[in-house]
Structure formats: C-alpha cells, structure tokens
Amino acid sequence: MGRGISLRCPSCGESPASKTVFHCVRCKRILEVNVEIAHLTRAEFRTMRESRDHSIWRWFEFFPVEDRGSIVSLGEGSTPLIHAARLGERLHIPNLYLKNDTVLPTGSLKDRSNSVGLSVGKELGFTTATVMSTGNAAASVAAYSAAAGLKSVVLVPKGTAPSKIIQARAYGATVIVVDGDFDYEVAKLYKAAIQEFGWYDCLSSNPYRDEGKKSYAYEFVDQLDGRIPDWVIHPTAGGTGIYAMWKGFKEFLSLGWIERAPKLVAAQSEAAAPIVAALEKGLTDVVPVVARETVAESIQVGNPVSLGWRALAALRESKGTAVALSDDEILEAQFLTGSLEGIFAEPAAATSAAVAKKLRASGVIGFDDLVVCNLTGHGLKQPEAVRIPDSELAPIEPTLEALREQLRHSEG
Ligand SMILES: Cc1ncc(COP(=O)(O)O)c(C=O)c1O
Ligand SMILES: [Zn+2]
Fold first, then answer.
1. Distance between Cα 268 and ligand 2 center (Å)
2. Hey, whose CA ends up nearest to atom 15 of ligand 1?
3. What is the pTM of this model?
4. Most CB contacts within 10 A, which of 161, 165, 243, 376?
C-alpha cells in the first residue's frame, strides 16, 4: 500500500491476505492497523496543529486512509476541552477538564470511529455498511454511510424503543428488528449477514474504524498546548476508547512529540463492569458477564470481545485503573456536569465525572492533578434519564403569588 498501511495480528504477527479480513486466521484475534509514521517531523506536527481543518483529519497521516479524496467527514473533532472550574471546585480538582464530545455531529464519540471507518469502507469499494446496535453506533454509522453515499443496515433486538432508532432512520438506515437476544442471537445473525451479503462491518471488530478514537490523544496534546493530563477518564464499553487513546499517545511518544503519557481510567457501570473485574483479578483477558440493567445504557456491554483485552493492557501499561459506579453515582454526576458546567451528557457519558469524584475522594487523584473526563454522548440521547417530580410539572395559577409559592417549593 502506498502510505505504508498494513494489518497485523497483535498476538502472533500473522498478516492477512486481504485488506478486508479483520480477524487473524490463526488465533481469531482482531487484527491491528499499522500506519507508517516514523518519518513525520516536528515541522509537520506544527503544520497539523495550525491546519484550518479542525476535524480529526488534520491528523490524516495517522489514519489508515490511502487517499484524502476518500475522506468522509461531517466536521467531527476538535470538540471543546473545557476547564471545568465550578465542577472542579466541587470535586476538589482545580485542574479538571471536560472533553465535550456531546457536540459531535451525531451526538456521540462514535463519530470519531465512523468517520475513519466509512472513509476506509468507501475506499475499499463497499456499497453497504452495517452495525448491530441499539443506540449511538447505529445513528453514527447511518449518518456517515449517508455522507459516504453508502447504504446502511442496522440490526436491533425486538423490544428496542423507537426513540433509540429514530436517529438512524432519519439518516436513511434500513432498520431490521430481530426477535432474539442481542449478545448472542442478534450477534450470530449479524456475522452471518456480513458473510452472506458482503456488507461492511462497522462494529469494533473493524480495525480501521477503531483507529478513529486515537484522535482524543492528538487533540489533548494540541488543546492543552503540550501539557499532558495526569489522568484521562473514559466511559468504557467495548474498550475501543482506552485502547485507541493509548495507541495515539504511544505514537506521539515514539515521535518524540510528547515526553510522557497520562494514566488512563476506564469508567463502567456496576451492572456491566467486566473490565473492572478483570483488572482487579489481574487477568490478561476479560471474562464476559451478563450485563444487568443500568441507567448507563450506552455502555451496558458484558462481553467486550474484540478489544477488551487490549484495553486491559493499555490500562496496565499506562498505570491507570478501572472503576465501577452505581446508578445513583452516575445520575449525580450527570446532574453536576449539567448544572455546574452547562453540559448535558447522557448517563453513560457522565460516568467519567463520577469516577473523577470517586478517585479524588479516595486520594488516588491528587489535588493538583490535571484530570480530563471524556463526556462521550449527548443527554438528549436518553432524555428520560432526567427525572422531573410530578409536583414540578403541575401547572400553577398565572399569578405572582403562585409563582412565589412554586419557587419556594422548587428551591427548597
Ligand atoms: C456514550 C458512550 N460512551 C462511551 C462508549 C464507550 O465505548 P468504548 O469503550 O468502545 O470506547 C460508548 C459506546 O459504546 C458510548 O455510546
Ligand atoms: Zn494471530
């Protein structure tokens, strides 16, 4: 390939015969993308930083796309990295920053992945992209397929609320409702359909797609002007974010563009915390769990089969950790980020802020540490998580007296 882009098995080193094989034929592990970057200079780093393109594509040289003409972009990237002074004061972390990915084009971090994923899919000549998902991934794959001129097919389990698939439908996806359990029956059909119809797989089993979240690392270095966070906390499901951020930081380290990397922290819900469990037990692979109901719906993943083990390695190498949270802790963090910082994050996304609070309270995070929390999805993705008491919704008489009374009630 012209730009030195290749696939390789991270376990046994095997290389596939074709660019469209995503798993090692020997050990079944997901393959890893390698992009040759050793030639990049500091001058090029400056040019990338000064680029007028504020999307992730200012970092084109790090992504596995041969030709700039293949880029499928909706302007994703360079999301605000906000110094959260008020929340920081509350949590006793004055150097607290929030990476506001709620403002990405489809409202979640998935756009970082799918911009890269669909660019490669288009370059490889696919005409239909697919994903199985009940939420953010479906919307994002549908939007980027539309932007790429590809069709998209989304598989969801029976019982999925229409509100979860409306966004994907609006972007033109064909939504197929399957009578079966998500992790097993829908997953089995998903694999079989890819084989049968030759669709482009947009799950985390697609190594090209997974490269997109490396952009977090590049953006932190850029936006903090060379300061390196002590901690980056990421809401974690499949493990792509942790794995890819670490890869991004290691790339910059290998080029000498940074001198150290942050400790990475995976934030999970207690109801679906296989990565926390594996880290605590000292395992190198994740043992799947059956995910229970949680308010953090978008990270309710019990079997991070593709990249869970890679995320574990990244957490260890970075000397980071993983933390599980109760629904109450998650909802409190959602309220705090909204009411103190003006950012409406979905519950799954607010887990990062909840972990910051917890690790500060236990002294793991120090007072002076520079902490970044990734807020990975918009609160409007799951509006029903914000509970409003009936008493607040009851109409009042249109008088000042009634207004005063209601204010006393609401503020009390
Ligand atoms: C809102 C939100 N946050 C975080 C994630 C985490 O995914 P990952 O661990 O693959 O980076 C997801 C996706 O599953 C998500 O939808
Ligand atoms: Zn292998």
1. 29
2. 298
3. 0.97
4. 376
